[in-house]
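Sample intake sheet
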Amino acid sequence: MDTAASPDLFEAESRALQAARTAYDTCATSATSATNEPAPCRQALGDLLGAYERLLRETRRLVRRSDRAELEMNQLNLRLQDLAAELEYRATHDPLTGVLNRAAIIELVNRHFVRNDLALIVLDIDHFKRINDSFGHPTGDRVIQGVVTCLKDEVPAAAQIGRVGGEEFTVVLPGQGGDACRQVAHALRHAIEAYAFELPDGSSVTASFGVSWMPCGSSFDDAYGLADEALYVAKRGGRNQVALASGPVHAQSA
């Protein structure tokens, strides 16, 4: 802290000290004793001035130290807040893709169901094991990141994306009905199919989708279970498809 630019907290004390010093300096020399020593009252005033000056210097030093400590404490508090936010982010997000992890998605869905209907899209990258086995896990990771890019580009603003398994993702659509979530799922399917993943053999990447819709008061397990069943319908039907769950929304595979 720049104390020169700061108000003097002890301005009044400094003025009083200066006045006392002036009085001491101008004290008549005739007040000295026969031994040429200062008179007792002048001696006492001198001692008091010296003690007060030392006290004021020490107080200023302690205030400067306190200001530095407060500044350091504020900086530490800001750092702790940053670290807390970073830890919370790491606890709730997938490190590879930056989307929500499974635990965070479960909490999010259950929280939404307290007050909203909710649509849940579950998608799985088709033949992902072949990609990993043929081209290695780094290529597989890039495919996963590319799929997340497609999802982020297409989902509505209110949607949340989560990675719930190695190559399995969810899209949470609060307050959405069956038709709306089906349209979103089809847009995601087309986006992934058209994306340039640049695999070594030039092949494309596709994904299969299961969609469920559940009313307010439901749970993640209910919504996910129905969407997962629909996903396997899409897989058995030839992959690269969207299937709607036969639950609160009744529709057929697309």
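Comment: Residues 16 and 22 are 10 Å apart (CA to CA). The chain has two domains: 9-92, 102-244.
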